[in-house]
Amino acid sequence: MSFTIQVKEELIDQAKSDKNELSAIIKLSGTLGLNNQGLTLSITTENARIARYIYALFEQSYHIQPEIKYHQKTNLRKNRVYTVFVAEEVEIILSDLKLADAFFGIETGMASWMLEDDDAGRSYLKGAFLATGTIRDPESGKYQLEIYSVYLDHAQDLADLLHKFMLDAKTIEHKSGAITYLQKAEDIMDFLIIIGAMESKDLFESVKMMREARNDINRANNAETANIAKTIQASMKTINNIIKIMETIGLDSLPVELQQIAQIRVNHPDYSIQQISDSLEFPLSKSGVNHRLRKLNKIADDL
After folding, report:
1. For residue 85, how many other CB atoms are within 10 A of its CB?
2. Fewer CB within 10 Å: N-end or C-end of the chain?
3. In this structure, are residues 126 and 196 in contact, taking their beta carbons and an 8 Å threshold?
4. Averaged over 231-259, what is the pLDDT?
5. Contacts with 105 (C-beta within 8 Å, 6 or more apart), sequence order
């Protein structure tokens, strides 16, 4: 199950719902039609549970029982597409939800009062996400929440509503519509809190923290590996220089303190500077060991 589906199923399991959700769902997923009796309304979704939830919203809010239809998609995925079909009181519903103007092209944005009522705004955002929202799986490490709108001005109104809740929302226009999106993990978690998806928020945060912890460990391991490689490279350079001294002027020509350092370095190529220091008869500081190793390298360079 995708993370998006997990969020949506948590939302539809909530006891509380209202007309503002239905308003957003109709605006984003609804289409009008005509039959002999008048206007009809069709709302489509690929999720059977969401279709039943929309049915329940109509039943709860307007005491009508829509018809649920479905057909199979013709592509290789062969997903079912469900349609909640309303053929009664459509004009009354659209008028009550203040959607009629938008559907007939007079107004395609969001009702201005939605920005003034926090509870209505939360419900509207919940409905909008149920209709066309998606969230990229946080395990991917690339955070993105999107809500698709047919109309650019509605996408911009959604962004304004999200701005009201202090979220850094942006919009982008496509050929077939527009997208309102969030890209910061903190904004996405705040959005989940706003629409009441607390379990999904906790899961998102947990996955994010686990990824960050793994990344920190990997960075630390990479740094340690790089440091080990540098140590080995420096060690081999010094060993080669000591061998050069041994084959030319001999270690006996060196001061005793340099002979000791040289012998330990050659006999223990994997020793750290601290381990070399601890192996000396009279231990030195690490800077003292480094100083003598540099002397050995200088002597070899001068040969």
Report:
1. 16
2. N
3. yes
4. 83
5. none
